[in-house]
Write a structure and sequence with these properties.
Blueprint: E1 10-19, H1 30-41, E2 45-47, E3 58-61, E4 71-76, E5 80-81, H2 82-99, E6 108-114, H3 120-138, H4 156-159, H5 165-176, H6 186-192, H7 198-203, E7 215-216, H8 218-223, E8 225-232, H9 237-255, H10 269-276, H11 280-297
Parallel strand pairs: 2-3
Antiparallel strand pairs: 1-4, 1-5, 1-6, 3-4, 6-8, 7-8
């Protein structure tokens, strides 16, 4: 497999989609999708009632945020690791595509990465980084996921009631000055609860009870993960594998000891790819995505948020 991900890196995916009608116009059930995936991949997957429990197997549940002509569903992986995990995602997604699954503007792709081995300071850097590069990442996506278009994946800056990335940067910087001097690993916070910890000080207003952000830190409270909700719905395995890889790179960048950005940071696509040290194939993939949407929308940043000027619309 061409995708590069460390064998120790744990991740999970949530794929929203619609089960369309069969060739005779009859409704197909989630259980039929599960049976098809088992038959074609040999991977254990069950159709279940709606639940938020992390399972040791793949599951298919109802998703009320998804609409369209057919049966809504969300296909959710167990925690996965390394190249074997990536291979399993590919086999499941390819099977979903063969089954005839469809996506639309109501569907999204959510990727979780394990956050229990990073510190609260590193998580603060992640918010600062994403506030600057959110508009660049918008350019990889269709208009339905750009700016403020999707109510289930709102901009980071909007969570902080801020029009600029610099203001978000300053808010996090100010809060960082108030946290304990010792390095607090997120895993310690997760194990003993959030209240009165560095995590609570940094993000107490924004993420304690709200998860509908392009960068969702509320997932940590329940799962000990960081969730990237920015990507549009897809049953294209190449897009999903590349998004897993890119978001892992973002998290890894923030975990590096020397990683930092300043309030005067000026983001660009190539600067982002250089900071993240991505392989050339991944850079080329997202550069081509940007060019595709520029051709479709007439300009590169149509509908995207901007690090200096709030939210562009349309």
């Amino acid at each position: 497999m061409d995708n590069i991900i460390n064998e120790q890196e744990t991740f999970g995916v949530e794929i929203e989609a619609v089960i369309n009608l069969d060739d005779d116009g009859d409704v197909r059930r989630r259980s039929e999708l599960a049976e098809y995936i088992i038959d074609t991949t040999g991977v254990e997957i069950l159709s279940e009632q709606w639940n938020t429990e992390t399972k040791s197997y793949w599951k298919i549940i109802h998703d009320g945020s998804v609409n369209g002509r057919g049966i809504d569903c969300e296909v959710i992986s167990p925690p996965l690791k390394g190249e074997k995990g990536m291979e399993q995602v590919k086999s499941i997604v390819d099977s979903m595509s063969e089954f005839g699954m469809e996506v639309n503007t109501s569907t999204g792709l959510h990727v979780h990465h394990d956050a229990k081995n990073i510190s609260s300071r590193e998580l603060g850097l992640l918010v600062q980084f994403y506030s600057f590069y959110e508009g660049i990442i918008d350019t990889f996506q269709p208009k339905s996921r750009r700016g403020t278009s999707a109510c289930y994946c709102r901009p980071v800056k909007q969570f902080y009631s801020a029009d600029t990335a610099k203001l978000v940067f300053d808010i996090i910087k100010s809060r960082m000055e108030k946290i304990s001097a010792g390095v607090e690993r997120i895993g310690d916070t997760y194990n003993r609860g959030i209240k009165n910890t560095n995590m609570d000080t940094l993000f107490y207003n924004e993420f304690r009870s709200e998860r509908y952000c392009k960068l969702n830190l509320n997932a940590f409270w329940k799962h000990g993960t960081v969730e990237f909700r920015h990507h549009s719905g897809t049953v294209d395995s190449e897009k999903i594998l590349n998004w897993i890889e890119l978001t892992q790179h973002i998290l890894n960048y923030c975990k590096k000891a020397k990683s930092r950005i300043t309030a005067k940071h000026s983001p660009s696509f190539h600067k982002m790819m250089d900071l993240l040290c991505v392989r050339n194939e991944l850079r080329e993939f997202y550069d081509n995505r940007r060019k595709h949407f520029k051709k479709e929308y007439g300009k590169m940043d149509a509908g995207c948020t901007h690090h200096k000027s709030g939210y562009k619309r349309g």
